[in-house]
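Treating backbone geometry as a discrete language has practical consequences that deserve illustration. No coordinates are needed to read the tokens, only the vocabulary itself. For completeness, the protein is quoted in full, as a sequence line and a line of structure tokens:
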Amino acid sequence: MTRVSQISRTATVAEKEPAVSTPPTRHSDRSIIGLALAGGGPQGAIHEIGALRALDEALDGLDLNDLDIYVGVSAGAFIAACLANKLSTEQMARAIVKHEPGEHPFVPETFLSPAVGNLVKSGLRVPKLFLEALWLYARHPEDLTLIESLTRLARALPVGIFKNEPVREYLQRIFTIKGRTDDFRELAHRLIVVATDLDSGQPIRFGEPGADHIPISTAVQASTALPGLYPPVLIDDRHYVDGVLIKTLHASVALDEGADLVFCLNPIVPVDTIRAVDLGVMRRGKLIDRGLPSVLSQTFRTLIHSRLYVGLAAYDERYKNADVILLEPRRDDYEVFFSNVFSFSHRRAICEHAYHCTRRYLRTQRRELEPVLARHGITLRSDVLDDEGRSLWDSGRPRKRHIPPVVDRLGGALERLENLVAEL
């Protein structure tokens, strides 16, 4: 699940450079440590929470709420912004379990609220566009067929089928309580949220000078605006969309800031279904049988993942004496790919699965990881990693309240019904 690579830090940066940038302050000989998180939608965010929780427990000398620089894109920007705002991995893990006490439960509906208003507005445009198409055909019958003229109706297609305003509202609520902040400039450590300028195709790094006056919640809303799923976000008369269009991880942003060690999490990995039938995950090992969403998802994952490794390979000649630790699922990790995040039990399972996979890799790759981590004052906690019975929910779990038997039975029935609906 983890890839360790030593890379160089010397060559010219090919990306657009900020006008002014103040690197993180180096304290004596302490390493500058960064975290770069990729996207992946609600499922990717849940996976990252589980993996981060495992790192938080197993690495001594590393505080995930006290890193020098955080870089996030898409759903990774959501998680990075929470970490920079001092939300612990323990708090985020509990927020997934909405039936337990928590300040703001993390639910997929935050990301997947249908944009009914946009659909209605798009529908109202159809009559006008239809008349314009007929008029265009009447004026130029020798140049256009009727079918070609009617392609004008494509302008009525909505630019996004889900609302992303709930994402901004959710973050704004949790960043304005308990001493947190929705202002990049008030954070104790650097946070960079990457989005893409729709009209220029250039990256924008919210949080850097000149782009740090934008609220964090709005920047995350822009970074998660994947075209087709979410509408572009208007900020200062410019439209912004998902930063994954430029790069998968944007780990180079942290390295450009002088990071000596960067932890990278990427949940966007293409699935290999060759063994899925033998394991009983699929009836037939063909993604095409699962329809257009699965085909599009696999296409997107393949493109994103191949680009990630091309970028990592290029780092070898661009940076010197820096270490990168990449964590991502295996291609045959069907627990991740074929889960329904709308199911409460599945969300919990995805998070705990990522937690255990990360712990397992830290154990099996201990010999390779230890010297890399030691260079930066970090050690692996053998007592934690070797505790095979350890669970994601063990540490810091709120005391269980007494639940009347009738309520307990009702809860079980509702969860069984929820799973049945998910399977259908």
